[in-house]
């Protein structure tokens, strides 16, 4: 039997229109749900980085990543499990200012969860906490059960590999070398 | 030297720079400026006016498949674009290089549900290698060059260029620059010498090696390299449907076709060999049957240019990435010269059994209605086994590829992966345009021909010498076959009441004849082949003919029905 596991797919692409669609249709075709998604410019100008998490078995995720990697505008795609990664998510919690003050446990909460206050006005307080899913979820649960949460949002995962291999820069160096070779010939 | 020209002219100059001489297309509102410009370029760019945009893409496929060049299609926006989708999807499945140019509404109208606006990029992304919308005339040279580079290199495939109307009329300083490098795209993976050595060692150590030949050999122009490889180590081979004609039918190591309606020997030996060498093929389910029982005894070597194909369906022991044109001879160089008479002789009993149980009955019936197989073999032989075979999809297709014979490569044009009924007639048009000096024999059924029958108009207008052989059984034959075998002969919606096809041909000015009797067949075929121009031969074949051998879908590949 196949066992499903949470995989983090990391993709580097050219910054062209329609890239996200090209990637998501590959998940859709295999009925894979995207759990989290985060896209932003990478450290290299003009190259975007996608971080996608999904539950799949390894055979499936391997095929999905090969299909993504094959797309013309994709520079590099690979997958990792949580053990290979340092990863983080960020969560925002909107609370009622009145209740927040009345509860009187501000300091406890912030210390316990290592959260911080981003905004405080007459009507609301916005807390921020970063961490793994279960950490941001634990604060949400505690707040929900006590003071109540007016709004809650959690970002997609961002991740960095622990390994010494830098796949993108290695790949770019290799492509650059090939181009030089070609120009010489 | 720079010159200011319209975007439309820039497109045509770009196509000429890419060595294009033929366009299959159909005009419409959003592409009129390009057609207007084309009027001045008729001496350099021949435009073939099809009768439906689906036909334009299939014709471009036929053209690409026989010529090895990129097929080009030009259509308008909206319905013009959506009508091309079946051909684009077909080309994606069968790795056929196409550049499909669709007109698009002017860019300020994009996203407004303008007349004949459709999200071409959105709907073609899943079925193209690359899809790009040109919004500015400055992008044309770059986009066209990139499109041809992507379509024709690596594993070929279709590319869509969606060309906004304002970019067609805008002016641009035109200078063409050929693209031969894209940072994010490596068409041919690096060849690993270690894998070559492992593959050669496995083959040298094998006592029963068997080679599966796919279209990758043809796409890589590696036919001669393949022959040398097989001959040096005396390795028998079977071809996938699209791999057919990479080896001549009579090549001694060519043991026939693989898969559902393939030959008995190759299918059985797949599950008896000790080393399976797959070259440029993708282990389609029609080739493998049940994967759980497929070649489990064998070590598998897979040569392919596309990394995503390796291990996709069948677990691989040695993965040889690269262009077959390079990887095959690298392995050959390390092979021992061997003779394997006993192993090769093991195909004989299977071949004999198939001949007695299936082929002889199909080719030499003593009585009754015409058989599909006998018509096909007679046409093949009357054309000296040198013609291009085009088929539609269904029984005509499987009979066609089984009983036609091949002497040279690029002789089979058929819809393999997508299995598109209606593919054949427009594909035959493209094949004739792409190989004008070759005889093109197109086999179809009464169902498939009627799906794109309007393209008889294209044949009429272009005076294309296409030989059309309709195997008419008044049934949707392949579905009927499945209904007979697996659905208790409940012929749900497979009976066809047909028009007078000879009269239809006549209306298009196409010579035609109907043949019912076996005694008339040879003479009718001779008349067809000798006729200087297109010809429709309607062969009234037995209504309930069956394509055997048959491996039922999803069954073990050695579970072969032979209709006893």
Brief write-up:
The complex is a heterodimer of chains A (185) and B (564). Chain A has helices at residues 19-29, 58-70, 97-103, 106-113, 133-146, 167-184; strands spanning 5-14, 34-41, 47-56, 74-80, 85-96, 116-120, 124-131, 151-154, 158-161. Chain A has 185 residues and is of the alpha+beta class.
Structural notes for this entry:
Chain A is α+β, with helices and mostly antiparallel strands and 185 residues long. Chain A has six helices and nine strands. Chain A has helices spanning 19-29, 58-70, 97-103, 106-113, 133-146, 167-184; strands at residues 5-14, 34-41, 47-56, 74-80, 85-96, 116-120, 124-131, 151-154, 158-161. In chain A, strand 6 (116-120) and strand 7 (124-131) form a beta hairpin. The longest helix of chain A is centred in the last third of the chain and has 18 residues, at 167-184. Helix content of chain B is 38%, strand content 17%. Chain B contains 24 helices and 20 strands. Chains A and B meet through helix 1, helix 2 and helix 6 of A and strand 6 of B.
Largest interface: A-B, 22 and 21 residues
Report low-confidence residues of chain A grouped into runs of 5 or more. Answer: none
How much is the average pLDDT of chain A? 93
| H and E string of chain A | EHEEHEEHHEEHEEH
End-to-end Cα distance of chain B, whole Å, is: 73 Å
Number of strands of chain B: 20
Q: Which spans of chain B have pLDDT < 50 for at least 5 consecutive residues?
A: none
Shape assignment of chain A: elongated
End-to-end gap of chain A: 52 Å
Number of helices of chain A: 6
As a percent range, the share of strand residues of chain B is: 15-25%
The pLDDT mean of chain B sits at 97
Number of distinct helices of chain B:
24
By DSSP, the count of extended strands of chain A is 9
Helical percentage of chain B: 25-40%
Quaternary structure of the protein: heterodimer
Question: What does the main sheet of chain B amount to?
Answer: 6 strands, parallel
* Structural class by sheet pairing and helices of chain A: alpha+beta
């Amino acid at each position: 039997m196949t066992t499903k596991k949470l995989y983090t797919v990391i993709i580097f692409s050219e910054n062209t229109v329609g890239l996200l669609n090209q990637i998501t249709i590959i998940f859709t075709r295999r009925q894979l749900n995207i759990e989290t998604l985060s896209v932003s410019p990478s450290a290299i100008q003009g190259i975007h980085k996608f971080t996608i998490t999904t539950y799949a078995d390894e055979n499936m995720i391997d095929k999905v990543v090969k299909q993504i990697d094959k797309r013309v505008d994709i520079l590099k795609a690979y997958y990792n499990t949580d053990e290979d990664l340092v990863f983080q998510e960020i969560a925002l919690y909107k609370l009622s200012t009145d209740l927040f003050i009345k509860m009187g446990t501000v300091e406890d909460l912030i210390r316990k969860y290592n959260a911080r206050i981003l905004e405080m006005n007459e009507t609301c307080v916005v807390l921020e906490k970063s961490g793994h899913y279960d950490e941001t979820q634990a604060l949400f649960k505690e707040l929900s059960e006590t003071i109540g949460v007016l709004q809650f949002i959690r970002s997609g995962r961002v991740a960095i590999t622990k390994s010494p291999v830098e796949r993108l820069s290695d790949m770019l160096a290799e492509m650059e070398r090939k181009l030089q070779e070609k120009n010489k010939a | 030297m720079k010159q200011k020209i319209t975007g439309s002219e820039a497109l045509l100059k770009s196509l000429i720079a890419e060595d294009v001489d033929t366009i299959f297309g159909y005009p419409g509102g959003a592409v009129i400026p390009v057609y207007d410009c084309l009027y001045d370029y008729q001496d350099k760019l021949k435009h073939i006016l099809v009768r439906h945009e689906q036909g334009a893409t299939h014709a471009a496929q036929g053209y690409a498949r026989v010529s090895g060049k990129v097929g080009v299609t030009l259509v308008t926006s909206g319905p013009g674009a959506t009508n091309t989708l079946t051909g684009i999807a077909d080309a994606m499945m069968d790795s056929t290089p196409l550049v499909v140019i669709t007109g698009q509404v002017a860019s300020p109208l994009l996203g407004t549900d303008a007349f004949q606006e459709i999200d071409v990029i959105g709907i073609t992304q899943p079925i193209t290698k690359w899809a790009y919308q040109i919004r500015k005339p400055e992008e044309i040279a770059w986009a066209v060059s990139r499109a041809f580079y992507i379509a024709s290199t690596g594993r070929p495939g279709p590319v869509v260029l969606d060309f906004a109307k304002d970019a067609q009329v805008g002016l641009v300083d035109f200078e063409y620059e050929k693209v031969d490098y894209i940072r994010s795209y490596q068409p041919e993976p690096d060849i690993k010498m270690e894998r070559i050595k492992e593959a050669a060692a496995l083959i040298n150590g094998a006592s029963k090696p068997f080679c599966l030949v796919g279209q990758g050999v043809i796409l890589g122009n590696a036919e001669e390299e393949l022959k040398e490889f097989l001959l040096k180590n005396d390795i028998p081979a079977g071809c996938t449907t699209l791999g057919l004609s990479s080896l001549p039918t009579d090549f001694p190591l060519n043991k026939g076709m693989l898969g559902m309606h393939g030959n008995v020997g190759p299918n059985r030996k797949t599950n008896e060999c000790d080393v399976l060498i797959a070259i440029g093929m993708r282990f389609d389910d029609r080739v493998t049957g049940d994967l759980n029982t497929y070649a489990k005894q064998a070590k598998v070597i897979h040569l392919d240019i596309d990394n995503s194909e390796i291990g996709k369906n069948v677990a691989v022991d040695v993965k040889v990435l690269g262009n077959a044109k390079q990887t095959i001879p690298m392995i050959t160089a390390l092979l021992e010269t061997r003779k394997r008479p006993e192993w090769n002789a093991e195909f004989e009993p299977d071949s004999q059994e198939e001949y007695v149980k299936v082929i002889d009955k199909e080719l030499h019936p003593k009585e009754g209605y015409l058989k599909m197989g006998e018509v096909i073999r007679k046409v093949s032989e009357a054309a000296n086994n040198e013609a291009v075979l085009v088929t539609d999809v269904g029984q005509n297709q499987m009979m066609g590829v089984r009983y036609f014979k091949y002497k040279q490569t690029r002789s089979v044009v058929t819809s393999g992966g997508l299995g598109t009924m209606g593919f054949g007639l427009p594909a035959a048009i493209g094949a004739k345009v792409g190989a004008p000096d070759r005889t093109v024999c197109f086999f179809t059924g009464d169902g498939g021909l009627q799906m794109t029958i309007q393209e008889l108009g294209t044949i009429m207008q272009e005076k294309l010498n296409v030989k059309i052989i309709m195997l008419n059984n008044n049934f949707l034959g392949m579905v009927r076959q499945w209904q007979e075998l697996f659905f208790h002969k409940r012929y749900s919606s497979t009976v066809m009441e047909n028009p007078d096809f000879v009269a239809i041909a006549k209306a298009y000015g196409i010579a035609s004849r109907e043949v019912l009797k076996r005694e008339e067949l040879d003479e009718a075929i001779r008349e067809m082949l000798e006729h200087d121009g297109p010809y429709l031969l309607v062969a009234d074949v037995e209504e309930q003919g069956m394509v055997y051998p048959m491996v039922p879908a999803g069954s073990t590949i050695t579970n072969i029905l032979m209709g006893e």
